[in-house]
Amino acid sequence: MPIYEFRCNKCQQITSFFVRTVNDPLNPTCPACGSDNVERCISRFAVHKTTKAIHEESGEPTMFPKNPNYYKDPRNIGRSTEKRLKDLGIDMDSEEYRDTFAGVKETIAAAREGEMPKTLKDQL
Fold it and tell me: Which residues, at least 6 apart from 109, have a Cβ–Cβ distance to it below 8 Å?
């Protein structure tokens, strides 16, 4: 089930067209202006990595990582925070800390999914 991209020669809009099989006829028209004067583009693509591959590339969470971009990936922020709390002997799931760390757990979970956490200033 390929997806082809076309650029309209009239309005320059790029549009993706889905077809069921490679052999299906394709008569694309621009949804923005209705022109059939379109040409096929080389499609962009994405490469997805497994969590394991990301962790292997990033290395272990440390206070001062070798890679200066380590903390630009929110997943590493979540990993590092979990490791630091564990090193400090804090179990966020224990009854003692459950209420205290409820918001922190949500922030870590979001970071591990790729959402950049708010700065401390923004949280206050």
Answer: 78
The three state secondary structure string of the chain is CCEEEEEECCCCCEEEEECCCCCCCCCCCCCCCCCCCEEECCCCCCCCCCHHHHHHHHCCCCCCCCCCCHHHCHHHHHHHHHHHHHHCCCCCCCCCCCCCCHHHHHHHHHHHCCCCCCCHHHHC
Kindly report the pTM of this predicted structure: 0.44
Which tokens is 24 given?
């299906």
User: Which band of pLDDT confidence, cut at 50, 70 and 90, is reported for residue 95?
Assistant: confident
Question: Cα(102)–Cα(27) distance, rounded to whole angstroms?
Answer: 54
Check the CA dihedral 83-84-85-87 and report its sign: positive
Per-residue model confidence as pLDDT tens digits over 14-72: 998 888 887 888 888 999 999 999 999 887 766 777 878 877 777 777 777 777 788 88
List the domain boundaries for the chain: 3-40, 51-116
